[in-house]
């Protein structure tokens, strides 16, 4: 049902991870393998999106999705931003890059990003960080685009459905990267996938995609048993050959254990799950009034994290990963998709024969 | 396999919840229905355990288990305990019960509890809050008793197995009540069931019981698909007819939503998941140096929580519940067990036919 709706073979979505992992090769190969590849375009300029989509469309005729971040309003005292900028200069000095003494201009590219995606003929768009307004949903529906959005609680899922969203990703607390939470953000409930999915399934009538802690066919089988119509995997796709994730990041995932991740606002000003490192610990000690909010903190730390990744310094990068990252493997995207499907069937059969 | 090991019909364990819910009627009826009933004896005196086991054995010949808390060492300044005691007197005044001005004697009943359980012929004993030592495991094995213990991380599970434990309960972050964490307690990773279970299954060779967020047959099916050999449910059994949980507590569960619970040390000094209320918020503001550790804080707040429960004052009780408590129903224990099995089969079949 979800497969015919999205015109894919297997009920598997590759998460639209922003910041580089979702290369055109990854997105295209995931879709070629029968799942849904997603371009993580949250931080991309309209021009970058246009180029990436052109490359993807040269590699595959299968459906793909684009993920965008809904715009966030924020307030921050200049004093706080400048103090953070100054503190971050100690990192820049260590990395040997230019210090920065002012606050960057924050331009919101959302409307232009969205226009580019529609223009390029993409037929599935997913959103994170908020409920797309009815206006946005109607606009996309008018272009026959399917709208996906992320919820981390039943209340958020209900709001997404009432705004007209076609598919809801129920993101459990296990998930790596940014939390999609948009209601009661300062007092998050961190609901685990096992508890969240059946409650969301009961509360909405549109199909639900389970996300968070799913790394293999066992997780896929579990999610479908909970009532999800499909699964979304992020971390599992980070270590595949086509992924654009940094090698340090891939290595950290492949050697990780279950207790290595933590939810932090340190890197971006918004809660996200990643591996603990020195920069996380240091910046967390400044949380509260001293930490600029998302997306400002994201922009402030951005040059440092990019340079650290380039230098292979894992103590100054953000390395997003979910709580089951230890199950990741090096393989091709196609191999991951095919293994998910095969193991899922085996897991269901084994469970039935218990 | 786990069923023949425990001599039960269905791979379902009722959690050994301490403090009253596991009445002899509940334990016996769960076992009569083909699952494993468990007496939550953590806070019971040896005499109370003896009486309860006698009642249970009059009601059923089927196997039952007893859950005990492994003894905890702790340190607390008298000043801290007395300050808490004084603060708690404001609660006692509101409830109209006697103020207390000294610190109760803490006697550790563990060895006597264990001796009572062995003496009574119980054949399955489960432990929480630590790894039972090899000495304890050997002692129980010598009496042909199966040993179960709880882990909240892969590392804990590996330690339990190396100590000789026969069955490991993998408790995900969704679970209600006390966390079984015993390693790295101050920096808990809060691993969700979906991520924890497959990683524990891969790391140990003994059977794994999934716990946390499982409320119905969908959750049971999901847990089995993840590789668990059985499931353990706590919250789902709190609202059954035979449960000894307070009516206020039952009502809170039945009317709850997914975001109503929180992990807190407020009531007992040890992390546990329960419904947010005024006492939790008030005592949490004292966490740090000012909150006595478990089991002292448990004992200090005990009279207040009991009296509040009696008076129907839900703002001064601890009401443990998991993140999927909203799925609870009023029914008999037998009906719950039978529904779990039937729905589990349906969920697996539906997932297979996706």
TrEMBL record, chains A, B:
InterPro entries: Aldolase_TIM, NMO. Transmembrane segments: none annotated. It catalyses: 3 propionate 3-nitronate + 3 O2 + H2O = 3 3-oxopropanoate + 2 nitrate + nitrite + H2O2 + 3 H(+). Signal peptide: none annotated. GO terms for molecular function: monooxygenase activity. Keywords: Detoxification, Flavoprotein, FMN, Monooxygenase, Oxidoreductase. It holds the Pfam family NMO. Its cofactor is FMN. PANTHER family: NITRONATE MONOOXYGENASE-RELATED (PTHR42747). Belongs to the nitronate monooxygenase family. NMO class I subfamily. Nitronate monooxygenase that uses molecular oxygen to catalyze the oxidative denitrification of alkyl nitronates. Acts on propionate 3-nitronate (P3N), the presumed physiological substrate. Probably functions in the detoxification of P3N, a metabolic poison produced by plants and fungi as a defense mechanism. This is Probable nitronate monooxygenase. It comes from Fictibacillus norfolkensis. The lineage of its organism: Bacteria, Bacillati, Bacillota, Bacilli, Bacillales.
């Amino acid at each position: 049902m979800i497969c015919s709706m999205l015109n894919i073979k297997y009920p598997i979505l590759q998460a639209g991870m922003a910041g580089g992992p979702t290369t055109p090769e990854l997105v295209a190969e995931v879709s070629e393998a029968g799942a849904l590849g997603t371009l993580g375009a949250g931080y991309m300029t309209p021009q970058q999106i246009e180029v990436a989509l052109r490359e993807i469309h040269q590699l595959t005729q299968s459906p793909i999705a684009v993920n965008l971040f809904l715009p966030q309003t924020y307030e921050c005292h200049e004093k706080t931003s400048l103090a953070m900028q100054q503190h971050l200069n100690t990192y820049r000095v260590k990395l040997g890059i230019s210090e920065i003494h002012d606050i960057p201009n924050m331009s919101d590219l959302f409307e232009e990003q969205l226009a580019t995606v529609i223009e390029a003929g993409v037929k599935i768009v997913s959103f994170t960080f908020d409920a797309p307004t009815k206006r946005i949903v109607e606009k996309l529906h008018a272009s026959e685009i399917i709208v996906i959005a992320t919820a981390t609680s039943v209340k958020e899922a209900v709001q997404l459905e009432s705004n007209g969203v076609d598919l809801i990703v129920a993101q459990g607390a296990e998930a790596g990267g940014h939390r999609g939470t948009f209601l009661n953000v300062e007092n998050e409930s961190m609901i685990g996938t096992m508890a969240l999915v059946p409650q969301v399934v009961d509360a909405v009538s549109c199909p639900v995609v389970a996300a968070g802690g799913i790394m293999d066919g066992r997780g896929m089988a579990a999610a479908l048993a909970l009532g999800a119509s499909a699964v979304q995997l992020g971390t599992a796709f980070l270590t595949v050959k086509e992924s654009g994730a940094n090698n340090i990041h891939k290595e950290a995932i492949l050697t990780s254990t279950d207790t290595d991740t933590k939810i932090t606002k340190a890197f971006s000003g918004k809660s996200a799950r990643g591996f603990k490192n020195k920069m996380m610990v240091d910046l967390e000690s400044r949380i509260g009034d001293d930490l600029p909010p998302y997306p400002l903190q994201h922009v402030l730390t951005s040059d440092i994290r990019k340079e650290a990744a380039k230098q292979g310094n894992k103590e100054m990068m953000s390395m997003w990963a979910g709580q089951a990252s230890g199950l990741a493997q090096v393989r091709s995207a196609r191999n991951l998709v095919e293994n998910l499907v095969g193991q899922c069937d085996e897991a269901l059969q084994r469970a039935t024969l218990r």
